[in-house]
Write a structure and sequence with these properties.
This protein is 35% helix and 29% strand. It is an alpha+beta fold and 118 residues long. Strands 2-1-3-4-5 form a 5-stranded antiparallel sheet. The radius of gyration is 22 Å and the shape is elongated.
Length: 118
């Protein structure tokens, strides 16, 4: 009897943990994940094109300029990277468009003349 009670408790605890984990990742209105790390973080998914001084255009990967393993990039951090790339002389201007994902939901974002516009 003792073994079956232990198994029942283990099954109940496992089921409770699984239920808690599943409900922790469900959608809420205006939010794309409920887990605190996700609902307080801001992610930017963006496609950028840089124009060099000689007029050539090339794609810009802003994640190349973040620390290894970093993937959380909000508009202020994006603007800092854009400022660095234009001040360093690598690009004359940078333009692009994408989406910002945050606790407030999903918003469009644009980069015009190296400035982030929400």
């Amino acid at each position: 009897m003792h073994g079956s009670v232990l198994s029942a408790v283990q099954i109940a605890v496992t089921a409770a943990l699984v239920t808690w984990m599943i409900t922790g990742f469900t959608r809420l209105p205006g939010r794309w994940l409920r887990w605190k790390m996700f609902c307080r973080a801001t992610f930017t998914v963006i496609s950028l094109t840089g124009t060099t001084k000689d007029g050539c255009t090339e794609p810009v990967n802003v994640y190349h300029y973040l620390s290894p393993g970093s993937f959380i990039l909000g508009p202020p951090q994006l603007q800092t990277i854009l400022d660095h790339l234009t001040r360093s002389g690598r690009y004359e201007r940078i333009d692009g468009h994408g989406r910002v994902l945050s606790a407030r939901g999903e918003q469009p974002v644009q980069v015009r003349a190296s400035r982030v516009v929400l």
